[in-house]
Amino acid sequence: MYFILLAVLVFGACKNDKGNGIEGPVLVKKMQEINVYTHRHYPADQELFANFEKQTGIKVNVVNAKADELMQKMTKEGAQCPADVLITVDAGRLVRAKDKGLLQSVVSPVLEVNIPSNLRDEDNQWFALTKRARVIAYAKDRVSPQQLSTYEDLAASKWNKKILVRSSGNIYNQSLLASIIANDGEDDARIWARNIVGNMSRSPQGNDRDQVKAIVAGEGDIAIVNTYYIGKLLNSSNPEEVKAGNGVGLFFPNQENRGTHINISGAGVAKYAPNKANAIKFIEYLSGVEAQEVFAKANYEYPVNSAVEPSDLLKSWGDFKADSLLLSTLGNNNKKAVLVFDEVGWK
């Protein structure tokens, strides 16, 4: 009688699971996926996601939006958030995501080997995937590279009405100023920002590519831009953009002291990730040699993995010394940077 009752209970349980659509194969299928919230929007990323699916059998579901929108979405969804991984650009945003409690610490010997310590969160909540250097683009026909030296020198009167740069609301500029605060102190950073405003050839507008186009159009002589955008211009299908890219030279500031400021794109495992193991495997893949080569060649970004060399285009710009500042410092100084920008009238 006992065995009959046990058999009925087991059969009933199995039947009930089936009735609710919970079967063994379905559970396995559900586990073999990953939900990626990403701010990046590049064909190279789609190629990498497809390669990851092919190699692992883990389906990559992508939600694409601006960084702030994704973070708002994650906050609103709370513990029910389906995101496994958040990908965005700039350490400032990654620190913001951490501070909002949207990420979690992970243990990965692979990531510790692939990514230098200054390019990952001290609590292992986020990890850099690519680097972009923020450099000085200059008009080849009007500026000699011998005239250039440091970010600080851009505040000199010799650059009066010659500088082009995007708005203070841009995270890249906020992180650049955050690095100057860290290296020079807040008072000197404030003086620097005020003098940059005085040296602007026009009110801040447009993105980094627009600053380069403005140089070629004669609206200014130098601009502060990310290297990645120069690669985009030079490889554009638009002849005017290619012309703009070829019309400027690139200078890496502060080579005689701390090095050129860099910012990153990076990823972290979401706090309530339903597929945490897959999420870690995914970020490990993106930090590996295969993915890093794609980032470098197809998207004109510097690899974070030292086993991978920059693309030929990036090599053509020359080697440079990068600022080794702990990138979390950029996020920690972000509020100070924003306040300084407001104080000096950097629009």
Report what the structure shows.
By secondary structure, the protein is an alpha/beta fold. It contains 16 helices and 9 strands. The chain has helices at 2-19, 24-31, 43-56, 67-77, 91-99, 109-114, 171-184, 186-199, 208-216, 227-234, 239-246, 276-287, 289-299, 312-316, 328-332, 334-344, and strands spanning 33-38, 59-64, 85-89, 127-139, 163-164, 222-226, 248-251, 262-269, 302-303. Strands 1, 2, 3, 4, 5, 6, 7, 8 and 9 form a 9-stranded mixed sheet that branches. Helix 3 links the parallel strand 1 (33-38) and strand 2. Helix 7 (171-184) packs across helix 8, helix 8 (186-199) crosses helix 16 (334-344) and helix 9 crosses helix 11 (239-246). It is globular, with a radius of gyration of 24 Å.
How helix-rich are the residues, as a percent range?
40-55%
Q: What percentage of the residues does DSSP assign to strands (E)?
A: 5-15%
Structural Rg: 24 Å
> Could you tell me how far the N terminus lies from the C terminus, measured between alpha carbons in angstroms?
82 Å
Number of DSSP strand runs: 9
Calculate the mean pLDDT score and round it.
Answer: 90
Write down the secondary-structure element order.
HHEHEHEHHEEHHHEHHEEHHEHHH
| Oligomerization status of the protein chains | single chain
Please, how many helices?
16
Quick one: biggest sheet? 9 strands, mixed
Low-confidence stretches: 1-29
User: What best-fitting shape do the alpha-carbon axes yield?
Assistant: globular
- By secondary-structure content and strand pairing, the structural class works out as alpha/beta
